[in-house]
Design brief:
The complex is a heterodimer of chains A (about 325) and B (about 270).
Chain A (H helix, E strand, L loop, with lengths): L1 H23 L18 H22 L2 E3 L3 E3 L5 H8 L7 H33 L4 H13 L2 H11 L5 H5 L3 H7 L5 H25 L4 H8 L4 H28 L4 H5 L8 H12 L2 H26 L7
Antiparallel strand pairs in A: 1-2
Chain B lengths: L1 H28 L15 H7 L2 H31 L5 H16 L2 H19 L7 H26 L3 H8 L4 H30 L2 H6 L7 H9 L5 H33 L7
Helix pairs in contact in B: 1-11, 2-11, 3-6, 3-8, 3-10, 4-6, 6-8, 7-8, 8-11, 10-11
The chains are: A mainly alpha (about 325), B mainly alpha (about 270).
Amino acid sequence: MRPRFRGLRATGIRETADSRLAHDNRGARAGAGGPRYPGWLVLPAVAWHVLFFLVPLGFIVATSFGTVVGFSDIAYTWSLDNYRYLWDDVVGELHIYRDIFFATFKLSIIGTLSTLVIGFPLAYYIARYAKHKTLLLLLVIVPFWTSFLIRAYAWLIVLDPEFPLFRALGLSDFVERQGILFSEKAIYIGVAYNYLPLMVLPLYAALERMDWSLVDAAQDLGDSPLRAFRRVTLPLALPGILAGSLLVFIPLTGEYIIPVILGGNKTFYAGSLIAQQFLESGDWPLGSAIAMVVIGALTIVLLVYARALGKQEQFG
Amino acid sequence: MTGRRILGGYAVLAYVFLYAPILVVVAFAFNGGRDVLFWEGFSTKWFEVALSTPEITQALRRSVLIALGNAVVACILGTMLALALPRMRPWVRTPIDALAYMTLVTPEIVFAIAALVFFVQAGDRLGLDNPLGWQTILIAHVVFNASVVALVVRARFVSMGQSLEEASFDLGAGPLATFRQVTLPRLAPAILAGGLLAFTFSFDDFITSFFVTGPTSETLPIYIWGQLRFGVTPAINATAAMMLAFTLVGVVVAYLVLRRSEQGRERGGLPGV
């Protein structure tokens, strides 16, 4: 009995120490587990995020309801004029701003789909067949860490009709006639290229967890490879497809660098439109309103996404 | 098996697609000629030209300093966040988490103009003549990168289990002593990796820097952007090649550090102790 008694006593002391700590850190304690780092440690980061992220976003909200007075001063007039203007403005037969939002949506969708189509077979190969998975995956990630700007402008050289490879193959005239550079085609190529790693990563993560014997089983039981792919692989890869699509779609809604560099700043999207208001026109309220429209549309997309996914944790 | 071979061939093509444009930029940085698209023999002269152009060297120096400062601040803020967050009550944790994720998913241009409006308005109120400069770039970069570091560090902190921290607290050590003696040795690789990623993101960043920069605080990507208006030149390629080298070193070191700590963990040892 004696050791046991001592054990109990020891436990008792422990609990006392514990509850003392509990008292000290009362504000920071959660329901589960023992002592922990105090909750106030989050304060510097939270303060930084509130002051330099949330408050600035609040400024944008307020500015989007404002008007320009004089040369470039902003009056916070709380009017819907900017939004009305974005919806109604007509030049000739065209609703320019509506069309630009539509073009942005199209760019985001096509960009997402093309990275998916290009990236899926690659992720599939690495996850299922490759010997040096980590190395191959690293090779996909490395371009992502290098400068977005440089990766975009690299295509200025590669798509030039005078690119040495085209000259060597006698294709310069042909490429010239296609007029790829500074067109929408160049923008789409640049988008597919720059965003590919963002798609491949989550696809790989989903496919890597897959039990490939399920595919074999489906085929043994009479499914054609295509049918097995559709009925087994695709549903299991779906979380990766959704995560990758989100990672590509979101930044594409505000894409600015690629249309300017590869599209010659001729085709306008929401991102370049915002930049134009801030850098050239000096109409910050209108630029803010455009940004709010982007954020609003994104929020809707994210809500639909969250709903489709249930409460599954995505970014953990 | 043919499916496997076809996919293998496809993968080779995909890697060519991923690397060819980058390699073209690097290759043409070594072109001896003046014209970008006509190869006139190997030469390093454009690197010499780039390194003797004051705008480029000053921009490079500024970029490195901002990236370093950003990495240090982001590491401190992100690590503190990662340590305290995992075991807070959900109703406290969720909004803080949501805010951090928001900084990661907001389209960069939206944040960039928000920061611009904020800094200009705040500068007005504080009576500053020119509120924009390297300081505002640094502040804006930390917003995003503190979240990045928190993400990396927290993943490691949660996965390594906290029984040692609990024991340390139980034995009466305070947060600072526990951090120095128990947590830091095990978490150092993750913090370092997070810091290197933060450095890379800041060093490569264009959009945010472009909007919140002042007239006298051009970073390297801003300089490149400005020059691209006049077309690609060999000197720009050389500058870009140097930028790529800088980032690649950071990324490869981050990867090696993380991988070594991973292996240390698998062996059951405490890396760095």
